[in-house]
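wait is this the right file?? whatever heres the structure
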C-alpha cells in the first residue's frame, strides 16, 4: 500500500476518534475517489496516482470557489477553502516559479526543444519530473515563455 494512502487512512481514523466531522468527510471523499479508480482499473494506486487525484480535487474546489464567489455564496466559499487546506496538506510542498523555470530550462536543454512546436515534448517531461509540485497552468505558462524567447 502506498504511503500516502496509509497516511489518509490513519488521518481518517484520527479524525473519527477526535470527532472532527469536517476533516473526516473530506478524507472519506478522497478515499472513495481512490477506491473507485482502484476498482475500475483493478490496480493498487501509487503515491503519484493519489497525488493526481488530490490535484484534481483541488482544481475542482478552486473552480467551485470562483463560481460561489460570483454567485455571492460566501458560506460555500469558506467551506471549500477549508477543504482546500485539508487536501493541500497531503501534497508535497509546492515549487516556486523560479524552481519550475530552472527545471524547465534543464528539460528544454535535454530534449533539444527549440520552439513552440516542441511544447508537447517539454510538457510531457515536465509533468513527469515536477508532478504535483506545481500546477499545470503555471508549468505551461513558463514553458511558453521559455520556448518563445
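ok assuming it is, sequence goes like this
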Amino acid at each position: 500500500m502506498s504511503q500516502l494512502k496509509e497516511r489518509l487512512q490513519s488521518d481518517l481514523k484520527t479524525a473519527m476518534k477526535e470527532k472532527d466531522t469536517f476533516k473526516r468527510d473530506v478524507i472519506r471523499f478522497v478515499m472513495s475517489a481512490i477506491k473507485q479508480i482502484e476498482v475500475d482499473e483493478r490496480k493498487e494506486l501509487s503515491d503519484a496516482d493519489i497525488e493526481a487525484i488530490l490535484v484534481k480535487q483541488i482544481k475542482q474546489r478552486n473552480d467551485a470557489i470562483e463560481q460561489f464567489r460570483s454567485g455571492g455564496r460566501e458560506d460555500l466559499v469558506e467551506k471549500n477553502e477549508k477543504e482546500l487546506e485539508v487536501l493541500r496538506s497531503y501534497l508535497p510542498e509546492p515549487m516556486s516559479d523560479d524552481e519550475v523555470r530552472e527545471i524547465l530550462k534543464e528539460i528544454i536543454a535535454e530534449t533539444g526543444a527549440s520552439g513552440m512546436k516542441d511544447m508537447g515534448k517539454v510538457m510531457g517531461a515536465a509533468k513527469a519530473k515536477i508532478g504535483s509540485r506545481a500546477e499545470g497552468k503555471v508549468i505551461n505558462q513558463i514553458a511558453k515563455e521559455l520556448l518563445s524567447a
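Helices lie at 3-17, 21-41, 47-70, 74-88, 97-111, 119-130, 136-148. so i think its the right one actually
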